[in-house]
């Protein structure tokens, strides 16, 4: 085990070990996969679970050092994928709420392998990659459900990238807030008032704006009535209008919103 893995393990606290508790935790993934089709029984994944751990503080997992033999599923909390430019700037490429597979591309053979940060107080299901590969090879319905889920994630990311290239700051941030709402709903949070899971700097790294610009743009969105904001919680008030204006499509939570 290398130094980086030792550091990562040092930030974890094992939570569960019994079969019943592992089965309950894996249920977060099953519920999420079931949003896109037939009900999924993810209990077959239990033999692939190494452990379930709590992240004590914001913790990066480096793709080249920690991803090689593990798959991470978020049971609770929030996480995001990121990459670093040579000059040290960070780009956040995707966001993860409960039930999300945070580094599936390392199994699927994807060319883009990103780092992941788990936010403080998150709970993470750690699966052995080889055991997981064996399980899904024998479970066609489970494999197809995961593929549908990851295709939806890819389409939503493409939609956001298109907007970040073409839209001005207000629309870019509005689109990003819609994505955050979509992700949180898919993770089981259907409340109107949503806790903002990212800092201003992290929102900037997701949208390509500075944290100061993000703050100013949030105020503009409040002035237009698109959002209400109370501390770190927000509510989207003009969601259907903004969705139409942005040509926005919900890829995960469409059934929840209907």
UniProtKB/TrEMBL annotation:
One of its GO terms (molecular function) is DNA binding. Residues 167-240 form the HTH crp-type domain. Pfam families: HTH_Crp_2. PROSITE patterns: HTH_CRP_2. The keyword DNA-binding applies. One of its GO terms (biological process) is regulation of DNA-templated transcription. It comes from the Bacteria. The keyword Transcription applies. Keywords: DNA-binding, Transcription, Transcription regulation. SUPFAM superfamilies: cAMP-binding domain-like (SSF51206), Winged helix' DNA-binding domain (SSF46785). InterPro entries: cNMP-bd_dom_sf, HTH_CRP, RmlC-like_jellyroll, WH-like_DNA-bd_sf, WH_DNA-bd_sf. This is HTH crp-type domain-containing protein.
């Amino acid at each position: 085990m290398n130094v980086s893995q030792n550091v990562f393990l040092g930030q974890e606290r094992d939570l569960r070990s019994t079969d019943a508790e592992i089965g309950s935790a894996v249920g977060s993934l099953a519920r999420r996969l079931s949003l896109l089709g037939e009900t999924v029984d993810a209990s077959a994944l239990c033999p692939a679970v190494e452990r379930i751990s709590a992240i004590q503080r914001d913790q990066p997992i480096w793709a080249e050092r920690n991803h090689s033999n593990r798959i991470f599923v978020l049971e609770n909390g929030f996480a995001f994928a990121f990459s670093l430019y040579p000059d040290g700037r960070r780009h956040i490429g995707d966001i993860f709420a409960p039930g999300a597979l945070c580094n599936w591309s390392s199994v699927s053979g994807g060319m883009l392998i990103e780092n992941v940060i788990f936010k403080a107080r998150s709970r993470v299901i750690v699966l052995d990659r080889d055991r997981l590969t064996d399980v899904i090879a024998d479970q066609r319905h489970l494999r197809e459900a995961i593929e549908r889920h990851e295709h939806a994630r890819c389409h939503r990311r493409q939609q956001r990238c298109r907007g970040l290239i073409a839209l001005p700051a207000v629309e870019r941030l509005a689109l990003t807030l819609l994505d955050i709402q979509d992700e949180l709903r898919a993770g089981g949070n259907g409340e109107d008032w949503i806790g903002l899971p990212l800092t201003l700097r992290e929102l900037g790294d997701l949208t390509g704006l500075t944290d100061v610009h993000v703050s100013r743009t949030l105020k503009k969105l409040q002035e237009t009535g698109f959002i209400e904001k109370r501390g770190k919680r927000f509510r989207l008030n003009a969601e259907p209008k903004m969705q139409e204006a942005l040509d926005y499509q919900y890829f995960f939570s469409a059934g929840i919103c209907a």
